[in-house]
Amino acid sequence: MWPRHEPAPRGLRLFGGVQSRLRATLVKRAKYGDDAGADDMDAAFARNVAARKRYKGNELDPDAEYDHDGGLELFEAKKRRGDAQQQAARDKARQVASFNRQQKAEDACNHCFSSSRRPRHMTIAIGQSTYLALVPKGRLSEGHCYIAPAEHVASMRQVGGQFDSGAVCV
C-alpha cells in the first residue's frame, strides 16, 4: 500500500554539485566583498546622506538625471576624499603600483617573450602575436611544443582574435 503523505523534504537538494558551488560563491562574495550589487549602492547612498549630510535636493527630471549622472556623487567611496590634487596623486601612485606589479609578473614568467627567464634557444617560430617553442623539459611525444602569446596574459582566451597567427604555426 502506498503511503498517504510523503515525508517532508529535509532541504533543497540540487544535482551535480550545484548546491556546493552556490554555497562557495556566496561565501566568496561575503568574504571578499565580490557582490557589488544594488544593496551595496543603497547602503553607500544611505551612509553618505546620513553621515555626511551631503544630500541636496535634485531638481532634475528622471531623464536629465540619467543623462547628466545627477546624484552620482553620493555613491562615491571613501577613497575619493580629498581635493583634486590628492586624488590625482593617489591615482598616479595606484597606476605606478599596477605597472610595477605587471613588470614583476612579466619578469617572473617563463613564457613571456620579453622575459629574461624564457629559454630563447627553444623558440621555433615567431608570429605576430604568438610564438612556437619546444618544451624545455619532459616532452609528451615526438615534436611536442607549445604556442604561447608574445604578451603576458593570464590565459589564451584573453588573446582573442589575435590567435590566428598561432593557428598558422601549428
UniProtKB/TrEMBL annotation:
The lineage's top-level taxon is Eukaryota
Q: Which cellular component, as a GO term, is one annotated location? A: post-mRNA release spliceosomal complex
Output the GO biological process annotations, alphabetical, semicolon-separated. Answer: mRNA splicing, via spliceosome
A Pfam family (short name) is CwfJ_C_1
Q: Where is the Cwf19-like C-terminal domain?
A: 100-159
Say which family it is in.
Answer: Belongs to the CWF19 family.
Q: What protein name is recorded for this chain?
A: Cwf19-like C-terminal domain-containing protein
| Originating organism | Monoraphidium neglectum
